[in-house]
Amino acid sequence: MDIQNIGFVGLGLMGGSLSIALKELNKSYHFIGLDHNEVHAQKALELGLVDEVVHNIDSLCHCDVIFLSVPVDGIISIAQQIKPLKETCTVIDLGSAKAKISNSIPSTIRSHFVTAHPLTGTEKFGPTAAISNLYKDRVVVLCDIEKSGKHQQKVAKTLFQNIGMKLVYMDAQEHDRHAAFISHMPHALSFSLANSVMKQEARNSIVALAGGGFKDMSRIAKSSPKMWEDIFRQNKSNVLEAINAFQSELKKCQKMVENEEWDKLNTWMTQANKLHDIL
Amino acid sequence: MDIQNIGFVGLGLMGGSLSIALKELNKSYHFIGLDHNEVHAQKALELGLVDEVVHNIDSLCHCDVIFLSVPVDGIISIAQQIKPLKETCTVIDLGSAKAKISNSIPSTIRSHFVTAHPLTGTEKFGPTAAISNLYKDRVVVLCDIEKSGKHQQKVAKTLFQNIGMKLVYMDAQEHDRHAAFISHMPHALSFSLANSVMKQEARNSIVALAGGGFKDMSRIAKSSPKMWEDIFRQNKSNVLEAINAFQSELKKCQKMVENEEWDKLNTWMTQANKLHDIL
Q: What is d(CA A24, CA A33) in angstroms, rounded to the nearest whole number?
């Protein structure tokens, strides 16, 4: 497994943090970056996240590995633009919704691709948000892995494992449904919570009264609108189903409070406590 | 301000952590505990959270300070049982909903009471959950403080400040409305989230896919059903109003995803990002 040149399309939190982790692993890797935001590209160069910046995808075709760490729409569009790749090239995309990506990669280059979802992130974005341990001890879901070439499977697994990640395998459709419930819908809640509270409450009351619970629940409302617009678009039907399921539970809670069914409410909350046995 | 004996009604997370903080402040305080749960009372004695355990509220009447750290219902019931207190006795309740407490204390002892809401906690409960720095650097809201005696005001302010808390003053009604939006409704969301996800998702998917966002949003779903049943009861109308306000934002989000109004959704999420400027 001979890797020298590693390309990054997208030099934000995810790409930048990955380059830091890989550089710590092997100082001899040469990193080449591409970002349509010129300010981000220059900042990434300045911060040493990449050794070189290029301006079009063709300039990455000689790379041994190319990471696509841009929103899902961007990944799909880049997959259409990629010219024939050298046989040993591995393209790894890091999108949060996988089925549309997995199905839209042209069949001529499908085996080069490994579609991965690293379950990590912070609410911050851009190259200055990059941190060294973003990936360590976190899970990466590899989707439809049987569609990737043997060499590409090996490269992706080795790199992710070497930066301390745990591998999980899933069908892309199945991944998207799970992700809608466990990640995407909770983001919709957090955005809704932030907006409802800011509409009703003055800044100083929020500062005075926000305990750990509110801070935790509203943290991801600070996430990138560009990225989340894209995830909601790519995983629309699953996200809507998850929002529905949540609404039906909240309505249940509302009715029990309204009707003063305290024992029933207590049982329902005790049920929720069971999450403790899982996480 | 001469304080020797401090009583605690309720020896769980809040009372236990308070006794640890006060003991660190002054080793000469003598702590007397009361808890209707005998196992908790014995455990608190074992852990050194109290120096002595008593079995009825009358046995606390000689105390200089009595903390009531039980659910709101319990506080209201205890306020009815308290016998005439010595002039310098200060009773401080730590309930999370304040208007019903503030209004139900018999007028003969109202000036002895300081109704406080310390904005802190963890999802854990019971005396074994007590930790030393639960109160440090957190806010405590003192409600309807003008109804407390001058001496009692001074005792409460001094003790809370000495354990590192920041004081905020509010009318009890106003407090309850703010708390519904910033603390109580978010708990209803977290319980609903946990229940909707556990219904749809298998344990292993939750473990595999739960990132920081889900963990943060579901953490408070592990909170005590007894305590939260009580808060929802005591602050019912405000909680229902806050749930309504949240539902209307979530519905907005749902409609925008359904109708693929991505620009509008982006603007709405950008609005939510503004929380970043506040917290």
A: 17
The whole-angstrom distance between B108's CA and the closest CA on chain A is 31
Q: Which CATH superfamily is domain B175-278 in?
A: 6-phosphogluconate dehydrogenase C-terminal like domain (1.10.3660.10)
Q: How many of the other CB atoms lie within 10 Å of CB of B133? A: 14
* Residue given tokens 């999108």 in the structure block: A95
CB-based burial, A236-248: b 16+ in 10 Å, e otherwise: bebbbbbbebbbe
Query: Structural domain boundaries of chain A?
Result: 5-170, 175-278
CA distance A44 to B179: 43
Q: Hey, are the CB atoms on A250 and B189 less than 8 Å from each other?
A: yes
Q: What is the pLDDT of residues B31-50, one digit of tens each?
A: 999 999 999 999 999 999 99
| CB-based contact A198 B222, cutoff 8 Å | no
Instruction: Report CA-CA distances (Å) from B161 to A165, A208, B148, B155.
Output: 45, 16, 17, 10
pLDDT tens readout for residues B100-119: 999 999 999 999 999 999 99
**Orientation of helix A236-258 relative to helix A185-200, angle to 10°:** 50
Q: What is the pLDDT of residue B248?
A: 98
C-beta atoms of B178 and A201 within 8 A: yes
* Residue B84 DSSP one-character state: P
**The domains spanning B5-170 and B175-278 adopt the same CATH topology:** no
Model pTM? 0.86
- Please report which helix (H) or strand (E) contains residue A67, including its range: strand A65-68
pLDDT tens-place string over residues A132-152: 999 999 999 999 999 999 999
Class of domain A5-170: alpha beta
Closest by CA position to B192, among listed A265, A170, A277 = A265
Residue with tokens 């696509």: A68
ipTM: 0.87
Q: Which of B138, B199, B209 sits opposite A183 (nearest CB)?
A: B209
